[in-house]
Amino acid sequence: MPPAQVRHAVLVHGAGGGGWEWEIWRRVLEARAIACVCVDLEPVAAGLAATTLDDYRNQVRLALKALPRPRALVGASLGGLLAASSAASADALVLVNPLPPAHWSAQLPQREWPDVVPWRRDARLASTRRALADADDATALFAFRRWRDESGAVLRHAQSGVAVAVPQCPVLLVASELDEDVPADVSAAMAGAWGASLLRLPGSTHVGPLLGRDAASVAAQVVAWLRG
Questions:
Q1: What ranges do the domains of the chain cover?
Q2: For all residues of the chain together, what is the average pLDDT?
Q3: Do the beta carbons of residue 113 and residue 50 sit within 8 Å?
Q4: Which residues are within 8 A (CB) of 160 and not within 5 positions of it... i.e. 6 or more apart?
Q5: How does DSSP classify residue 21?
Q6: Cα dihedral sign for 64, 29, 32, 171?
Q7: Helix or strand holding residue 63 (H, E)
Q8: What is the CATH number of domain 8-226?
């Protein structure tokens, strides 16, 4: 189990999102004396089309190394992949419906990504509401107003399979049973191969653990795991 004295955490959002996705978790963790840094992944100066997975990963590693140890690294979706590949400096690792590394990435649906994925331009409240079926209307509106475009190069790299060493720190995987992007069984297979703890969430969608009606409860369960 992770060290019970963890008092700091870096939280890494998924593709097309931002640090705002963690607002519920931040409140829960900080109420339990775990200070949070909610990273906003930034494109390079040349723009999103020139931004790579390594650019994002470097931002995560710098944010983590700036915190005192022992420290936890938490990532969701793309942020989960970034966190898993940056875990060497973490004392505990929490992955929420993470995009899986090789070889599990081959089990996900393959897609074509343009150089800049126009999620902000193409955002619709109706599609956001469908994606957040386990959230309330106010949360869906909140998310709809904040989606951003994303780097196609980052998503292509993630899809092609990123080599990730088995983390040496304690790991918790959170898997949503209604996740259509990263099936819960893929996350469960990762947990089994890594000797990680697994929290399966019935009735939860891909972003449900962060933005759904049960987000605070999920965050509290993660804190309980961090406390051992």
A1: 8-226
A2: 96
A3: no
A4: 105
A5: G
A6: negative
A7: helix 53-65
A8: 3.40.50.1820
Write down the residue that tokens 């990762």 correspond to.
190
Which one, of 148, 147, 127, 125, lies nearest residue 138 by Cα?
Answer: 125
Tokens encoding 64: 């983590």
Contact 174, 96 (CB under 8 A): yes
pLDDT digit string (tens) for 179-204?
Answer: 999 999 999 999 999 999 999 999 99
The answer, yes or no, to whether the previous bond of 68 is cis (omega within 30 of 0) is no
Q: Residues near 225 by Cβ (< 8 Å), separated by ≥ 6?
A: 1, 2, 94, 172, 197, 199
The verdict on pTM exceeding 0.90 is yes
**Whole-angstrom distance, CA of residue 39 vs CA of residue 177:** 26
Cα-based angle 71, 75, 78 (whole degrees, multiple of 5) = 150
Interatomic CA distance for residues 150 and 13, integer angstroms: 12
Q: Is the pLDDT of residue 176 over 90?
A: yes
Structure tokens at 46: 């040349």
Strand partners, 35: 8
Confidence of residue 1 (pLDDT cuts 50, 70, 90): low
Among 9, 199, 175, CA closest to 76: 175
Alpha helices, H only, 94-212:
125-131, 137-144, 152-160, 184-194, 208-211
CB 193 within 8 A of CB 103: no
